[in-house]
Amino acid sequence: MFFPLVAAPAPAPPVVTIGFHDFSFDAPATLPAGAVTFKGVNLGKNPHHGILIKLGAGKSANDLVAALAKPGPPPTADITASMSDYTWSFSKPLTTGRHVVKFTTAPGQPHELVIWKLAPGKTVKDLAAWAEKPAGPPPAQVVGGVSPAQAGIDNYATLNLTPGNYALVCFLPDAKDGKEHFKHGMVQELTLK
To answer: Which of 9, 19, 53, 59 could form a disulfide with 26 if both were Cys (CB 3.0 to 4.6 A apart)?
Structure first.
């Protein structure tokens, strides 16, 4: 008698909970290697989110703080982009290859840009559905973007874009109704050849 071998399902990744307070957070000092699910718990009065930064070999959080306190000259940008309520405006279209993009935020609400490369056959609608109920692997991979910024603060991103379909998304909550900006239309699909 023959019984086919069936692979056991992969174990669920460990869950790491981060507690966000106003102006501080609680998080473990170390994380397990490999896939991890982050759970953010807002313990403050204001909206919060986290950004995970991989430090270079031999560098510490204190090194990062010191570097941010004394930034060098900004990079030379080949594209400029303005972020305003529910849209981005680029000085020229994004293309494949390496680009340095300078982002400015117009007066109004702060904005961010998360650039996702969509998996083959997936669309912005698939990504939006996953963002609403993140079950299973995402239908895209983050390849770049800029953190939230208010008017008067420039952000720079170095992008290495390859052919494919992309989604540009702002996840920040709206000041008026609390809905993420992508629900107000701050989402854009882009095809690069």
So the answer is: 19
- The number of beta carbons lying within 10 Å of the beta carbon of residue 139 is 21
182 neighbors 128 (Cβ within 8 angstroms)? yes
How big is the chain, counted in residues?
A: 193
Phi and psi for 68 in degrees, rounded to 5? -70, -30
Q: Shortest CA distance to 156 belongs to which of 106, 91, 115, 102?
A: 102
Q: Which residues contact 116 (CB under 8 A, 6 or more apart)?
A: 127, 138, 140, 141, 142, 143, 166, 167, 168, 169
Q: What is the pLDDT of residues 27-72, one digit of tens each?
A: 998 888 888 888 889 898 876 778 888 889 999 999 999 988 888 8
Q: Is the pTM of this model over 0.70?
A: yes
CB 115 within 8 A of CB 165: no
